[in-house]
Recover the amino acids of this structure.
């Protein structure tokens, strides 16, 4: 059986020794240095790489850096919200959303980006995330049912105990219970 061969983008800059590639990266950050200047410097170091290859490398690394910064920003914002609200459920939901978003991007770009994640693994991860979401939804639905049952029993018990002697208190307690159930319902959905 033939082995699956991935398409891999090829750029000579990635083949450079680490110290030379780090110097290329440093020079790319200096906007006064052109791709042609970097190409000439590499030639002086006995590496033949065209200015267009350096340009493609710069574009690839810029896209990667941008995606990394975007993900870090999302995680920071999610952590701020979770810390502020003290809500582990919100943190879990946010992490799932980031993971699903990143995997969706990966699948959408799968033809260009096969070098990092084979399609089978991306699809497998997407299935696992779908199962995790289905499980989370099931747990929330079960909790919602339990809250509604507890709410109903509370109202029945309050009516039974206080209806004849303190109808105004019954009305206030039932209103508070209804508001509480509404808040719990919004958080669970």
């Amino acid at each position: 059986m033939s082995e699956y061969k991935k398409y891999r983008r090829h750029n000579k800059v990635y083949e450079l020794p680490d110290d030379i590639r780090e110097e290329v990266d440093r020079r790319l950050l200096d906007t006064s240095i052109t791709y042609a200047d970097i190409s000439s410097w590499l030639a002086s170091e006995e590496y033949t790489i065209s200015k267009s290859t350096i340009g493609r490398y710069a574009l690839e690394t810029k896209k990667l850096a941008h995606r990394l910064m975007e993900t870090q920003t999302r995680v920071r914002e999610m952590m701020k919200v979770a810390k502020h609200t003290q809500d582990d459920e919100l943190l879990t939901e946010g992490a799932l959303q980031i993971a699903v978003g990143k995997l969706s991007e990966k699948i959408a770009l799968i033809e260009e980006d096969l070098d990092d994640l084979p399609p089978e693994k991306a699809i497998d991860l997407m299935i696992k995330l779908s199962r995790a979401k289905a499980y989370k939804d099931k747990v929330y639905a079960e909790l919602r049912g339990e809250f509604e049952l507890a709410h109903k029993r509370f109202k029945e018990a309050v009516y039974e105990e206080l209806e004849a002697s303190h109808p105004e208190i019954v009305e206030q307690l039932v209103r508070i219970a209804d508001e509480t159930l509404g808040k719990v319902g919004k958080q669970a959905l």
About this structure: The radius of gyration is 29 Å. Residues 1-66 form one domain. DSSP finds six helices and no strands in the chain. Residues 1-8, 110-114 have pLDDT under 50 and may be disordered.
